[in-house]
Every structure is written in structure tokens, then in C-alpha cells.
Write a structure and sequence with these properties.
The chain is α+β, with helices and mostly antiparallel strands. Strands 2, 15, 16, 17, 18, 19, 20, 21 and 22 form a nine-stranded mixed β-sheet that branches. The protein has a four-stranded antiparallel β-sheet with strand order 5-6-7-12, with no helix packed on it. Strands 8-9-10-11 form a four-stranded antiparallel β-sheet. Strand 18 and strand 19 form a beta hairpin. It starts with a helix and ends in a 9-residue tail after the last strand. The structure holds FE2/S2 (inorganic) cluster and fe (ii) ion. FE2/S2 (inorganic) cluster binds next to loops. FE2/S2 (inorganic) cluster (FES) binds next to loops.
Length: about 400
């Protein structure tokens, strides 16, 4: 249970908030890259929701706001409205949506050789926020040299475009094999915008008792999967490992702070013996919405890639469809915002409590000017964090539970 005041402190994401300052220590993916030419998949979530003053499905909003097709794209991250663009020389930029001249939206901006031009009077800004042109001002005017605009660093990694909204030197994007390895097969999946706050989504990752009930009943492997697991948690500097045991079946997932959940994704029914991992990366959109990306990674074994047996799909999107609709409905109906002052936590919620304490410590660290847990700065170039060191699955997969 959290007081309303503590709940606000742990959850508000906008500029000037304590949690928002902590979250601004990390990179978040904001869209699938227009340059990604590998396999893609789209999760289908059919329930209706409201976003951007419209009613639509999480899938429609995810496709519209989470996939960059090359034209300037309006994005909202950590409560800030921004525009993602690629200029004609190929450089990506992420700038404030509202033009500093007279506030027209740069989502209708025109990419130039360098920078993005506002469609109204042509003020042009580059990826660092420098003003490159003010076509209506006299050539002798030095006005443009004094003008800057809000701009944030962006980077492409694993088919996704990542943004850093913090101050100072950005840390490293965690070099997790799922999105950082140069070998293997990667599938980039848009998992929609959800009308839920990032913390209620991430709490679900450390609440694994729900798997035995929410996902267990009615599954094709209900004999194993519907058993309520014994659950335990292990903390390290970067996150929380959640362990679930059902008899001789053990499974672990790993939450890399603050919002990346790493999963082991064996093939349905254990029918194909090849490793497969995935990461679900949750980007806080604002206090009421979260954008999901799912990246599936099939590593090489002894330098070889798999020949998939007939009927097997590389991506997990189709296989986890039912699972995600179940999670979606359980999470979204908790409320927006969730009122944690009325919850009643039991012994199986120890992971949720551990998670909130970690968030609390992160917020305090940032207030003291330190890097919070989960920030990575000094890994050598080329260092890869292996999913196989973090997540295991002893018998069957969630996909098999379908
Ligand atoms: S409003 Fe953007 S250039 Fe005038
Ligand atoms: Fe779940």
C-alpha cells in the first residue's frame, strides 16, 4: 500500500517530477526505425481506448505512433510532445513539437538537407536544436544564431530508435544481445500503446504468481502451467530476476531497470531445440500510457542459424497473442492512475515491494546527483550482455501455454 503522495512521487513522469528525473537517466525506444528491413510483427489488441483525443485500438495507436516511416512523426515520451524526423542527409533528430517562433507544430515540418523546417515560416532546426535558417529575416540578422530549440539525442539499435531525454552525457544503451548482438536473427515487434502507467506494467513483470491463474487456466499445457508457482526474487545492480518453480519446471525472467523485461522463449511445446530470447521494452509515454516494443532474438549455435521446421514461426507475436490480451485486461483495469492506497499486498507481492524500493532508491540517487541503478556507462565497446546468463526455462514456454 502506498499513500497517494508516495504513489504520485513514484509514478509521475513529466518534466520537473522526481520520478521523471530518475526515468530521464535512461534511454527508451520511441519507434521502429524506417531503416529496419528485417522481420517485423504486430501484436493485435482489439479493445478500445482513448489516446491523442481519439478512440481507437492499442494496435492502431501503436502502429501510428510507434513506427517511424520516414516522415516526421509526433511522439510523446515522458509526458513531452516531440517530433522525430530524418533529414535528407539521413540524420535523425528529435525536437520539441512546438516551433519556438509562433508555436506551429513541427509534426508537419519539412525535412531539409540538414534539419527540419517549420512549414509556417521555415525556421529550420537541426538534431542539436541549432537554428540553421530563418528565411523571412534579413540576411544580416543574427537572430537565428541566438535561437535554439529543444532537441534530444537519438540512436538506432536493434531496429529501434532510442531517445535520451536526460541532461549531461548519455549513458550506454544496455548492450543486451536481444537488440545489440550483430549475429543471429532479430524480429522487431510493435506491441502497441497501452492505456496504463509504466509502473503497473512493470509490476506485472515481477508478479509471476499471476501466470498460474491468469494464463494457466484453459491453456494447452494447463497440467503444468496452471500450477501456482513458488516464486522468489533475486536483485542485482541492474535489475530483478524473478524465479518461478512448478515441481521440476523452473523459469526465470529478468527485469533490467527500469522497464526492459528479458524472457526465455523456447519454441511451442518444446518441439524445436534452439535457443530463443526476447525483450519487452516499455516506454513511458505519459502518466496514463505506455508504448511497448518486443524484440525476439534467435542466436546462432556453433555459427549456424536454424532451419525452422514447417509450421514454426520465428516471431513470438502470434504465439503470445492470448497471453497479452489477458495481461492487457488485468493491467489496464487496475485504473488510470492506479490507486495504490487501497491495495492489500500479500506474501506473493514481495517482488512488487522490492521493485518499488528500487525505484525509490533510484529517485534518491538522482536527487543526490548520482547515477541510479541500471545506468550503464563503462562497458567496453563490443561487450554484450547475454540473455542466457539472465533467463532460463526448464520445461515449457509461455507460448506452449497457449
Ligand atoms: S511558427 Fe514556425 S517558423 Fe513561424
Ligand atoms: Fe502475464
Amino acid at each position: 500500500m502506498l499513500s497517494t503522495q508516495d504513489n504520485d512521487r513514484l509514478t509521475k513522469v513529466g518534466p520537473g517530477t522526481e520520478c521523471g528525473a530518475w526515468l530521464r537517466s535512461f534511454w527508451f525506444p520511441i519507434a521502429i526505425s524506417d531503416l529496419w528491413d528485417g522481420p517485423q510483427a504486430q501484436l493485435q489488441l482489439p479493445d478500445l481506448m482513448k489516446y491523442d483525443d481519439r478512440v481507437g485500438t492499442p494496435t492502431e495507436f501503436g502502429e501510428q505512433f510507434g513506427t517511424f516511416k520516414g516522415d516526421p512523426l509526433k511522439v510523446r515520451v515522458l509526458g513531452e510532445d516531440l517530433v522525430l524526423y530524418r533529414d535528407l542527409s539521413g540524420v535523425l533528430g528529435l525536437v520539441g513539437i512546438s516551433c519556438p517562433h509562433r508555436s506551429s507544430s513541427l509534426e508537419y515540418g519539412r525535412p531539409r538537407e540538414h534539419g527540419l523546417a517549420c512549414p509556417y515560416h521555415g525556421w529550420t532546426f537541426n538534431e542539436t536544436g541549432r537554428c540553421l535558417a530563418m528565411p523571412g529575416e534579413p540576411p544580416t540578422s543574427g537572430f537565428k544564431d541566438k535561437m535554439t530549440h529543444l532537441a534530444y539525442p537519438v540512436e538506432e539499435r536493434g531496429g529501434l530508435i532510442w531517445a535520451y531525454l536526460g541532461e549531461g552525457k548519455p549513458p550506454q544503451i544496455p548492450p543486451i544481445d536481444v537488440f545489440a548482438a550483430e549475429d543471429g536473427i532479430r524480429i522487431v515487434e510493435n506491441f502497441c500503446i497501452w492505456p496504463a502507467h509504466w509502473l503497473q506494467v512493470v509490476e506485472n513483470s515481477v508478479d509471476q504468481v499471476h501466470t498460474g491463474i491468469l494464463h494457466g487456466e484453459g491453456s494447452s499445457r494447463a497440467d503444468v502451467w496452471s500450477q501456482i508457482p513458488d516464486v522468489d526474487w533475486d536483485e542485482d545492480a541492474d535489475g530483478i530476476q524473478t524465479i518461478q518453480i512448478r515441481g521440476d519446471y523452473g523459469r526465470t525472467n529478468y527485469l533490467h531497470f527500469p522497464t526492459i523485461i528479458l524472457l526465455n522463449q523456447p519454441w511451442p511445446g518444446g518441439k524445436f531445440n534452439w535457443p530463443r530470447y526476447s525483450a519487452i521494452i516499455r516506454t513511458p509515454v505519459d502518466d496514463f500510457h505506455t508504448l511497448f516494443f518486443h524484440v525476439t532474438y534467435v542466436p546462432p549455435v556453433n555459427g549456424k542459424l536454424p532451419d525452422l521446421p514447417e509450421g514454426m514461426e520465428l516471431e513470438a507475436a502470434d504465439q503470445v497473442q492470448t497471453l497479452f490480451i489477458q495481461d492487457y485486461r488485468a493491467i489496464v483495469t487496475q485504473g488510470a492512475p492506479v490507486d495504490r492506497s487501497i491495495e492489500r499486498l500479500g506474501t506473493t507481492d514481495r517482488g512488487v515491494i522490492m521493485l518499488r524500493k528500487k525505484v525509490e532508491r533510484g529517485i534518491e540517487a538522482v536527487k543526490q546527483g548520482k547515477d541510479p541503478e541500471g545506468v550503464i556507462r563503462n562497458l567496453p565497446d563490443g561487450h554484450i550482455i547475454s540473455s542466457s546468463d539472465k533467463v532460463t526455462d526448464g520445461l515449457m514456454s509461455p507460448a506452449a501455454a497457449e
